[in-house]
Amino acid sequence: MNQFIMDVVIVGGGPSGLSAALVLGRSLRKVLIIDYNHPRNASTKRSHGYLTRDGISPVKFRQLAKEELKKYKTVNSIEDAVIDIEKKAGIFNITTKKGFNYQSRKVIFATGMKDQLPMIPGFIDVYGTSVFPCPYCDGWEHKNTKLAVFGNKVELFTYIKLISHWSKDLMVFTNGKCNLSDIQKNELKQHRIPLIETPIQEVQSVLSQLKKVILTDGRIIRRDGGFVMTNTVQSSNLPSKLGVEMDEKGRYQTKEHGLTNIDGIYIVGDATKGFAGIVGAASDGYETGIKINSELVEENWNKNLK
Ligand SMILES: Cc1cc2nc3c(=O)[nH]c(=O)nc-3n(C[C@H](O)[C@H](O)[C@H](O)COP(=O)(O)OP(=O)(O)OC[C@H]3O[C@@H](n4cnc5c(N)ncnc54)[C@H](O)[C@@H]3O)c2cc1C
């Protein structure tokens, strides 16, 4: 095999990509991580729920992971964006935005998802600091506080019930007419959870802490934090271009171990799970790294047979 050909190029250096790199480095594999450093959780100051790292800043988490990877000399990392991939004679040619080309036997997409926020003035200031997407990530810090739930998707009712576990002082803002059934509305009433369908004019915050929700009818409602149902889209459409299919929620479809319908292409983390969380993303990367190493062992073994 040409010495300049990588065993694995990992597109994306979040927890899923970095975890795959670690197990592949420990498996003596030539790995290149290409990442343009725009993780999904960039807006948040603290990440929770990763054993031994509960409350760590996402920036620090990446720094620590990259420090650990330095020990594995066959693993390299560059800051760049992958803009094109094609497969020729069983090898992937990878082109980056800075104009470089790399070749690899296998490619892992660890590219994650992006959240689209409601188009409400002031929302961007509170997202990730006092309004969050996931109660498992940030519910404990906001337990029993005055919370807002923002959203109007089909899963809204289930989401409200979930958030109500962390605080009973809940108000639901659908920013327009909602599709909850009369039975569901009645259940909210019984749980004393106000449902506000009036459009929102803006949200106001102090130092990124949500303070007020201002409605278009002039009402001002005091809240100290909240949770939001975002719309999500893939960070990278390259797997689609290669022929990897998506499910109805826009997640790339994978089989076990991150395998896709395209030979040599693997997908891990949020890009296939939707919202893996840091520990789930890292677990995905680890599992796929092991799978790829065992495939490469097989391929090399068979090549040397007469
Ligand atoms: C506000 C917020 C708070 C959160 N808090 C928590 C928490 O407390 N605990 C928790 O467990 N989870 C939390 N999450 C979820 C967590 O961030 C994700 O589940 C996790 O980051 C997924 O990891 P990943 O490796 O799949 O993707 P990401 O971490 O998003 O990494 C993907 C990487 O791929 C790179 N990339 C994408 N396309 C390309 C390309 N073409 N070329 C090169 N690089 C590319 C991006 O720059 C990015 O660095 C939170 C999410 C949000 C939005």
From TrEMBL:
Keyword list (alphabetical) reads: Flavoprotein, Oxidoreductase
SUPFAM superfamilies per UniProt: FAD/NAD(P)-binding domain
What cofactor(s) does the depicted protein rely on?
Answer: FAD
Q: Which InterPro entries match?
A: FAD/NAD-bd_sf, FAD/NAD-binding_dom, Ferredoxin-NADP_redctase_2
Entry-linked Pfam families: Pyr_redox_2 (PF07992)
Q: Residues in domain FAD/NAD(P)-binding?
A: 6-283
Annotated Gene3D superfamilies: FAD/NAD(P)-binding domain
How does the record describe its quaternary structure? Homodimer.
Q: What is this protein called?
A: Thioredoxin reductase
Query: What is the originating organism of this protein?
Result: Rossellomorea pakistanensis
